[in-house]
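A further point concerns the way the authors explain their paired sequence and structure data. Nothing conveys this as quickly as seeing an actual entry. An entry of this sort, consisting of the sequence and the corresponding C-alpha cells, reads as follows:
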Amino acid sequence: MADKLNRDPACLESCCPGQFGAPIPHAGVTFTAHTNLTLIDLRGDLQDATFLASAKTALGAAVPLEPNTTVAGTDCEMLWLGPDEWLLVSRNPALINERLPIEHGCLTDVSHGRAAWQISGLHTLALLAKGCSVDLHPREFRVGDCAQTALAHVGVLLHRRGAESFEIFCARSYAQHLWHWFTEAATEFGYEVTAADA
C-alpha cells in the first residue's frame, strides 16, 4: 500500500532550503522537491469499453486520449505516457493506490522509483533549454501538456503547470545527477530551494 511506506527523499540536497548562485534580489529559478506524491502507473486497452468506463468511474474523469496531455480527476491528475499508459499523480495515498477498482486495468505503484521537483521562476524556460530539446514555447507546449524527453541526458517526464512552472519526474537512480545539473545550470540566474513539500 502506498500510504504504508516510508518515503525518504531521492536527493537530500534538493530538500535543503536556501538561496544560491548569482547574488540577485530575486532568484530566477525556484526548486521544490516533491516528497509526498503517490505515483501510479496505469495500463489498459483503449479498445476495451469496460476498462475505459471503470477507469472513468474510479478516477472521476476519462483518461486523456490525446498524446502528451493531462486530465484532472478526483484526487489525482492523469498524465498521458502512451496509447495504453498513464501516470496517476496524487497527494492522497489513501484514495489513489494499486487497489483502485479499474476493471481490466493494470496498476503499479511507482512512487519509490521516481524523484520529482517543481521548478518555477522567470528563468525556468532558459534553464530547461540548456538541457532539453523540446520546444517549450507556450504556443507549442501549453499549460497542462506533458512530454517524455531527455534533460541533461536523463530521461524525464515534463508536466507544464503554468507559464513558468513545471513538474519534472525522473528515475530515482538519476536524481542526484540531475539535481547537480540543475544547480550548476541555474547558478547564473540565482536560484532558491524551498522546503520540500512533505
Summary: Helices lie at 49-59, 124-129, 175-186.
